[in-house]
Specification:
Layout: E1 3-8, H1 16-23, E2 29-32, E3 41-45, E4 48-52, E5 65-68, E6 73-74, H2 76-88, E7 98-101, E8 105-106, H3 109-122, H4 134-142, H5 159-175, H6 183-197, E9 201-202, H7 204-213, E10 218-221, H8 247-250, E11 261-267, E12 270-272, H9 285-293, E13 306-308, E14 310-311, H10 312-322, E15 326-330, E16 340-349, E17 352-354, H11 361-364, E18 368-375, H12 392-405, E19 409-413, E20 421-423
Parallel strand pairs: 1-10, 1-11, 2-5, 2-10, 5-7, 6-8, 7-9, 11-15, 14-16, 15-19
Antiparallel strand pairs: 3-4, 12-13, 16-17, 16-18, 19-20
Helix pairs in contact: 3-4
The protein binds guanosine-5'-diphosphate, 6-O-phosphoryl inosine monophosphate and magnesium ion.
Residues 8, 11-13, 38-41, 127-130, 132, 134-135, 223-225, 228, 239-240, 273-274, 299 line the site of 6-O-phosphoryl inosine monophosphate (IMO).
Length: 428
């Protein structure tokens, strides 16, 4: 296996960072291919917690090449801040270990302002975005007015592009009561950050082709989760990129036939940050308990995550749409003290049973989950790293998920720490 794609199968925060960190030991290159600094990936290494937003998680290991692909939206200031944060932890980010696609789309300060202004204006119907300007930056990309990284290499040629994007944004800004911007402010901003970003710029699709020809092992690190996919997620309560593994090809310039295996990171229960339908959401003590034991607070925004039971219908659907080969089940240990654990195995809408998530928001809001009850194992699995040391009832829970979702579970994570993980198969 020489290329592996990692994606979250739920609404994000499944523990992708931890699994990518673990697998990156055997990888040569780690690539981000979509999203931006809306992601928050947590690694716990030798007692130290490291939170990454924009940089591929492989950056924390020495001698690994990391790539930010063209499918990412890159906020230069966020990148500079993250590099400084890592440097304080003695992790150096240099043009040798980080390459950024020359055609990556830039997030500019007015994208963030627009994101926040829209959310404020939306009131009850807000998406609950991370407020990082992700949506507005992707809109500009698709509307063909973005500033790409390569555009700032020679700023003397950029005026026309800045005028084009600002002409559009100033109309919007006026409508939202924001001050109009003139191009000098943006040009000055780009001049300021240029020298800190351009050294990382490279022709990354060619680089990845070279890596493939040299049989290097490539790990693609997805952000967000499949239910936040702009096509197949709980639209409109989604992010603005495709989070499907197929995006690894488009967002990095690698042909889809070179993606060898896809691992879906899946939490042993369900969480969501921000607005939108959530069939198995709990509003009782069990929900609070999941949140407290699972420490379910957003990595990026600190917001409390909504919590609920494992929804097999959702994961089976996202696994089928995206073509997942195997699941990495995380946070099993969070369920250790539950006497009864529910698994959602179907939905009821207006008295009718269905076995899939309807894509209409109206129907999604009417879903009543159908549960199967599972006896808890009531013993400490935290830190277990041998499958034989898991209690029978925990194994039965894993098997139940595996059978229902119709995808084998090959990795089990039992704590936030790097070393607390069970591999049932060699990945690379
Ligand atoms: P990501 O966005 O998918 O990388 O996930 P986050 O880092 O946002 O959130 C996952 C949280 O769960 C982090 O705080 C991790 O340290 C933690 N975590 C990951 N795997 C496990 C696990 O197996 N058990 C427990 N208790 N925590 C875990
Ligand atoms: P990681 O990679 C969880 C959610 C936001 C909001 C919606 C749109 O850590 O799993 P956006 O700012 O992207 O326009 O917000 O998507 N969201 C995430 N939720 N984990 C993430 O990333 C997320 N990135 C975005 O909360 O509901
Ligand atoms: Mg996260």
């Amino acid at each position: 296996m020489s290329s592996v794609v990692i994606v979250g199968t739920q609404w994000g925060d499944e523990g992708k960072g931890k699994i990518v960190d673990s697998l990156s030991q055997d990888a040569d290159v780690i690539v981000r291919f979509q999203g931006g600094h809306n992601a928050g990936h947590t690694l716990v290494i030798d007692g130290q917690t490291i939170k990454l937003s924009l940089l591929p998680s492989g950056i924390v290991r020495r001698n690994k090449l990391t790539v930010i692909g063209n499918g990412v939206v890159l906020d230069p200031q966020a990148l500079i801040t993250e590099i400084e944060y890592l440097s304080k932890l003695n992790i150096s980010v240099t043009p040798e270990n980080l390459k950024i696609a020359e055609n990556v789309t830039l997030i500019l300060p007015f994208h963030k302002e627009l994101d926040i202004a829209r959310e404020n204006q939306a009131g009850k119907s807000k998406i609950g975005t991370t407020g990082r300007g992700i949506g507005p930056a992707y809109e500009d990309k698709v509307a063909r007015r973005s500033i790409k990284l390569i555009d700032i290499e020679d700023i003397s040629n950029i005026d026309e592009k800045i005028t084009r994007i600002l002409d559009h944004h100033n109309i919007l800004r006026k409508a939202f009561g924001l001050s109009e911007l003139n191009s000098d402010i943006i040009v000055d901003y780009l001049k300021d950050i240029k020298s800190q970003i351009i050294p990382f710029m490279d022709n990354t699709w060619r680089l990845l082709k070279e890596m493939r020809l040299r049989n290097k092992k490539v790990l693609f690190e997805g952000a967000q989760g499949l239910l936040l996919d702009v096509d197949f997620g709980t639209y409109p309560y989604v992010t603005s990129s495709n989070t499907l593994p197929a995006q690894a090809a488009i967002g990095s310039g690698v042909g889809p036939k070179y993606l060898d295996s896809i691992i879906g990171i899946t939490k042993a229960y369900t969480t969501r940050v921000g607005s939108g339908p959530f069939p198995t959401e709990l509003f009782d003590d069990a929900g609070d308990k999941l949140g407290n034991i699972g420490n379910e607070f957003g990595t990026v925004t600190g917001r409390e995550r909504r919590c609920g039971w494992f929804d097999g219908v959702l994961v089976r659907q996202t696994a089928q749409i995206s073509g997942i080969d195997m699941i990495a089940l995380t946070k099993l240990d969070v369920l250790d003290t539950f006497e009864k654990i529910m698994i959602c195995v179907g939905y009821e809408i207006d008295g009718r049973k269905i076995d899939y998530l309807p894509l209409s928001e109206y129907m999604q809001n009417k879903i009543k989950p159908i549960y199967e009850e599972h006896d808890g194992w009531l013993s400490d699995t935290s830190g277990v790293n041998d499958i034989n040391d898991l209690p029978d009832k925990a194994i039965q829970y894993i098997k139940k998920i595996e059978e229902f979702v119709e995808i084998p579970i090959k990795i089990i994570s039992t704590s936030p720490k790097r070393e607390d993980i069970i591999f049932l198969e060699n990945i690379f």
